[in-house]
Design a protein that fits this description.
The structure is a homodimer of 343-residue chains. Chain A is an all-alpha fold. The first copy, chain A, has 16 helices and 2 strands. At the A-B interface, helix 4, helix 6 and helix 7 of A face helix 4, helix 6 and helix 7 of B.
């Protein structure tokens, strides 16, 4: 593309990027969690996979740490040292943990990363409290960071979107599968951008803001993260129906049995070919036939086309950033890693 | 009212102060709530007493609005116009509403202000979500206010304390009534300052900060609010045992039947005269005998003495503020109103 170095060096594999960022952020994240009330700190540590119930050390699988990586790479994309992104990384990981704790209560999900969800392990009330504490700690961490009010404004806008997306998602469950009240693919896009995209965009944008990036780069990273979030959610939906349960950790047909209004389902419900689909969904449904019908109605292909579209926009936004060492390459690598999973 | 200089005028009664501040803040609070997801906005409006379940307008009793009044008076105490305190007032009322929604879930309290609690009326999951949304809105409101990062720092410190205080309070319930593991009156003071005092202090301090007060005045108002909070909680405890149920809205002996570790109970449990008290507490206890025993052991008098001590410190801190029109007088009037209730 240009007169070579450093942009031409192959970026490290995405897994190395995730590992590097996780190791960089871990001490600050642990320090922040250590400032919580001890009881709440244990629930937080459990949710990160650092301990068992009761506090015994553990090394359970935590999340991939995508959000912290985006924050660190955002700072690097601004030309700053990776460390400039640490407060942003800590804040977004705390917000993510808060949202998982509370979403599991709202959705009645008893399992998270193959362990009992916090509300199952500690009780609903304590899990509500732990989520609140993580939320407050995120705001506190960012308010104390040198980035100042701009950072808190970015985070609070993402928080507001996150909650709106969760409200959309909860209400989707109450709406019919057919007729004018049914959920449209357009509404799904809005929900996914809020519920998943807002925090991914915020992570990269916050890291860039703390790294001293200008407004256009901050805005571009925010938009890239939002498109990545929608793409990620679409891929997750496809894997939820056609993925390998050994890889996804979800039971075969689980999303269909729960009657989840995922994108492939919503797309198929709009097609006359799938008019029998509603009867095949839900706990008394026939998930294998439903999956075949959704595929025949084009739901799988539409979700993948849509995901590729969002990925392409995100990629274009990242390529338009001012070049900064290897950060853009690593961001692109991370993007591919997240949306090309096992497809 | 007179030809005398303003400082000498008798302050208006506290009820007028509360009414004035509530009317001043209401449009901005309603505007903020209107920015929420419509479903969540209804739950928020229900919690403020503005509507019934389903959205029909109501005029149910909301809270007294102590926190918003402290924020407005804090701004006035800084010599600013009352309107300077509005973003602070909105933020602290939203945080208060959030904490009531979530605390009612954690404590299993089915009733709030003589109506079903939000979780009883809308379900636990939706109430968790509505609390989260109010929390996010509070941070968003303050981050957008001209006060800048100092304001968010004050709020996030209060939020962290609020959650710590709730954790303390939940854990008190699991501890024994006797022996070295029992809750001490000193631990109670810390809990009450965090759970009730931190947000009252934050309200006044935030209002003052947005009104342009210097650091010493902001800190003095924060401390005054914290002492007020402890005093308020102590008075609430006394009313919970010996108050008139028609006034308090609490059933006779309710706190004793629930085995709540209130200050009078904790004080009495430290006295050899009350060694039979544990047997009289709880659902199978005898609340009338318990109340008499607590009083004989000095629990009621100790709580009132302690409350008067905190009130005196708060009063002294308020009197030490630079004089600003009638604000100090109104703050003192509010203080007396809140801690001299029906004693």
């Amino acid at each position: 593309m240009s007169a070579l170095p450093p942009a031409v060096q192959a970026p490290p594999p995405a897994v190395s990027t995730l590992d590097r960022c996780r190791e960089l952020v871990r001490p600050a994240l642990a320090e922040a969690v250590g400032r919580l009330h001890p009881w709440v700190a244990e629930m937080a540590a459990y949710s990160f996979g650092w301990c068992e119930v009761g506090g015994a050390p553990a090394a359970a699988p935590g999340g991939k740490g995508v959000r912290q990586a985006l924050a660190v790479l955002g700072a690097e994309a601004a030309g700053a040292d990776a460390r400039a992104g640490i407060p942003a990384a800590v804040a977004v990981e705390l917000v993510h943990a808060f949202s998982l704790l509370h979403d599991d209560i709202m959705d009645g999900d008893a399992t998270r990363r193959r362990r009992p969800a916090v509300w199952k392990a500690y009780g609903t009330g304590p899990a509500v409290l732990a989520g609140d504490a993580l939320f407050a700690l995120a705001v506190e961490t960012l308010a104390a960071a040198p980035g100042g009010p701009g950072g808190v404004r970015l985070l609070s806008a993402a928080l507001a979107d996150l909650v709106r997306g969760q409200a959309d998602d909860l209400l989707f469950a109450t709406r019919p599968c057919a007729g004018p009240e049914r959920v449209t693919p357009g509404e799904y896009r809005v929900m996914a951008e809020r519920k998943t995209g807002a925090l991914l965009g915020c992570a990269a944008a916050l890291g860039a803001a703390l790294g001293g990036a200008g407004e256009p780069a901050v805005a571009a990273l925010d938009r890239a993260g939002r498109h990545l979030g929608v793409a990620f959610q679409l891929v997750d939906d496809v894997l939820g129906v056609w993925g390998d349960p050994a890889v996804t950790g979800k039971p075969v047909g689980g999303d269909l049995r729960e009657g989840k209004k995922t994108f492939p389902v919503l797309f198929a419900l709009g097609s006359p070919a799938a008019r029998h689909l509603p009867a095949l969904l839900g706990p008394a449904g026939r998930p294998e036939e439903a999956a075949a019908l959704i595929e025949a109605a084009g739901g799988r292909a539409a979700a993948l086309t849509e995901a590729r579209g969002h990925t392409a926009v995100a990629r274009k936004l990242l390529r338009g950033l001012p070049p900064a060492a290897g950060a853009t390459g690593e961001l692109l690598g991370l993007l591919d890693h997240l949306v090309d999973r096992d497809l």
